[in-house]
Amino acid sequence: DTGSAAATPEQYDIQYLTPVSLGTPPQILNLDFDSGSSDLWVFSSETPASQVKGQAQYNPSKSSTSKEVSGATWDISYGDGSSSSGNVYTDVVNVGNATFAGQAVETAQQVSSSFTSDTNNDGLLGLAFSTINTVQPEQQKTFFDNIRDDLDSPVWTADLKHNEPGTYNFGFIDDSLYTGKIAYTDVDSSDGFWMITLDSYSVGSSTSNLSSRAFHHRPSTFPSPSDSASTPLTGIADTGTTLALLPDSVCTEYYSQVSSAANSQTAGGYVFDCDATLPDFTYTVGSTTITIPGEYINYAPVDTTGEQCFGGIQSDADIGFSIFGDIALKAAFVVFEDDGSSPRLGFAQK
Ligand SMILES: CN(C)c1ccc(C(=O)NN)cc1
Q: Does the Cβ of 13 fall within 6 Å of ligand 1?
């Protein structure tokens, strides 16, 4: 079995939506595939009308193959403070021809305001590890965990793009989607996430880093620079988070290269003049180097004046690890591999 479906960005690449078929006859909903969570939940016939604003709704009573999971409930909260909760059914779920008959479909009986106002998002399809699925009393498996053994290969891949549709594939690696070689790194899934350590990062052209300059002799008073060219970054690969949330030290180093940049309390992060030229941000996994173009890091205007723009790199303070969200992932072809025992993440240029 294999599957392939389009990942279409909403404005500013704030999120990517992918059509999913649920039930019999098929009910098509556009879901946010999220490698940072593990619940497949949908707007449904059970979602109060006051909390629905244009979203498609899954109606289990209209599906001949739906079965209620007796006594099961779910309740999830996300890093941005949004939340949802409800009941559970199983039904046929089909993603680009990859199909599982008994997939847990979590129907929303409550969604928070940010979901209600997100009018094109009909729900989430979790692709983190099933250990953090929120269904009680019996935890449910993610779509990938369910179909993994039927897939030609135990992988799914993300080819997200800037301002144009990309692709989520299941069960195979499409060699036409990347260049060079895929470099793999081990995943620590103990917290339920695709957590990895990037070998290094650099801001702009590497000569910006003092240590890479031929300093014949550096006065002893010179600060020995944090040699970012070999500083690792540990974080989670999260297709459901828009930005790249990185350590304060990295943010400081990055925005020190942008003369108009400031860390704004009112805007909630680093902002700069929209006409600023932003440096690239590069990270390495083994021998593969991924460069996020500066333009991708000019994320979006703060307001309708279009004077100040919000950065695509922001602080991961208070989270405890970095979050390599869409800003970081859309510059790469990413392989999420899990044979059930030793998960790995692969990165390639494209
Ligand atoms: C409000 N929406 C659409 C969200 C979607 C995804 C997430 C998230 O943290 N995923 N890892 C949060 C919020």
A: no
